[in-house]
Amino acid sequence: MKWKSFLPYFLILPALAYLVFFIAYPLTQSFILIFKESDIQVLKVLTDHNFLMALKYTLALAVAIIPIQVALALILAVIMNKAFKGRDLALYALIIPLIISDVAGGLIWYSILAPYGFLNKVLINIGILDSPIYFFGYQFRNMEFLAIVLAELWRLTAPVFVMILAGLQMISKDYIEAAEVFGATYWIKLRQIIFPLLKPTLQTVLLIRTIWSMQIFGIVWVLAGRDIPVLAGEAYYQMTELKNYGVASIYVLVIATLSILLGALYLKFLKAEYLEVKT
Amino acid sequence: MKRAVLSLFLIGVLAFAVVASGCVSKEETTPTTSEQPTETETTPAKLIWVSSQLNPPEERAFVEEVILPLFKKETGIDVEFVPMSHDQILTRLKAEVESGKVTIDLVTEGEVAMRELAEAGLLMNLDGMPALTGRTFIPKFVEYGKMNGNQKFLPFLSGTYIMIINKKAFDYLPDGLTKEDVIKGTDKWTYDAFLAWAKKLKEETGSPKVGFPAGVKGLFVRFLHGFMYPAFTGSQVKNFDSPEAVQMWEYLKELWPYVHPASTTWDAIGEPMLREEVWIGWDHIARFKDALFEKPDQFVVVPVPAGPKGRGFIAGFVGVGIPKGAPHSEAAWKLVDFLTRPDIQVKFVERGFLPAVKEASEALPEGPAKILATGVTNQLTTPDALNVLIPGLGEKGGEFKDVYRESFKRIVLENEDMNKVLKEEAERLRALFKEAGWSGELP
Fold first, then answer.
1. Which residue of B5, B263, B413 is in closest CB contact with A7?
2. Where is average pLDDT lowest: A130-134, B202-206, B219-223?
3. Which of A190, B158, B165, B191 is the most exposed place for a label (fewest CB within 10 A)?
4. Calpha distance B189→B196 (Å, rounded)
């Protein structure tokens, strides 16, 4: 009897050990790092110009990218959920960016958008432009922002699409067939059946995607350097260049806190609805 | 159920045993390796040479396929060349020296990085080593390698930052400035003349033709503290917020509209120079050497302009040192001897490096290497030369650069109030010198 009551704890032990070693321990360590350097004023860091800019750009990038990305992935998933000729090929083509790392993705987009990159060369050669459009440089920060949004849309729409497609395929055909019996149109099926049933998937997708967006780094670093500061980039800069380990820890903890907060918000406001329960 | 629990428990015990045995055997092996001093004095199986320099594939191939086989032929010693970043070297050496289990025999890094290693107590004293004969090192570099009177590292190759000019730009020289003035670095080749030239180039060609490597990894920050500051204020740090410095920043603000706007994304000037996006550039010689070797007829290497206080520039070098507790320090010293020998240095010069010993620069071959070396010599020998070295601030070196980088961003790019920025950044600058334990006068 006694053994039985211990068993559940025993079974969660591996997961717990993982969490302790890889999440709790580093988090505590970075917390300790902040206070190890006695002269660090947390408040000063959090009101610093560079920090505020990094926070602003991290959030702005998330706001600019995520809605478009999820909408795009949703449309693609709905299209790809139907059988048509060449579907498999289209599917493979769509998920190619999945295998490309953020730095490599950044470099690909850099070579497309650079002053003498593919895009400018094509536009100049066909006579649309006289001189190249500049996407990079401190004076062109809005263009740099645009370049990052484009690159992120291209790179991360694939995983979002895969998750949504999986969600779509989980929806039982029975519901749709039942709706068809009652003469529901395509739009009604989409609005009344597919979307509500897709909500748990969308919740997960948004949650994961938002957490990723708080960690955005490689692609920004490659395309804009520190012209567009982001939290993870500044953490890296503080750590490797300025050797301010404490300040870097503050940035990292801010990223963690933001992720947790946003996650909690999603869980609260995007409660999954199940048709069976709703009735 | 009981059985399941029991087997889980057993698995746990087994896993613990595996981990524990790993720990135990590790502890056992540590003393045995460090108790093998006899190995140090015999011919080593292989020397380990780590370097943050000579890392690009073709330079690495040159070291591995040309230089090291020669060494092997002479001494019979094998060397493994391991390219690494400075951070990797620092972390690894620290761990090795602290654990008393050093595997690295030789380190080569830029002079500031070497200084950081020396300050962290990771390099052995070279004073007790046999004398290196038949060569004259550049004295200023030897001096820089000393800490508390002890020689911690020696110069291996020298390097500097310089201006590179596309010959086309000479067609747009402003009034009163000749090609000869620029090439020789006469008193007419000043920052004011440079501004007039940049202005004329933009007005007459339609686009800015001056470029700097002002990207995240670019070295433009060195231009600010090691070239502009000495030229305008006479020093790198001391007069950071002086009236002369204000004059310098005003000059930069005036110059910037004639500088290519993509400069803030360039990490090196070679590519934009080759693409002819800009015609006048500035960078470290190592970073545009490839461009020069690709089209030697197109470019001229010239001294930098002079400011009111002289022609400020940084002359740096690659240092070579032996880690404290290196397993084969005697063999490593043989490699130091070999690498700094004039005939071997000449081989490096042919590849576009600059020698650290005087004897090697006397025997220069024709070609791009000569263009480079002539430019450097002209810069070094101008009468108003104001040669500075990057202050060795150890860990604080990054923040030192950040002060100049931030000042530039705030004053020139964001148009903030100059006096306010200089006051704030000066405080930070002085504080970091204090924190780094800088003794004596500020540079």
1. B5
2. A130-134
3. A190
4. 11
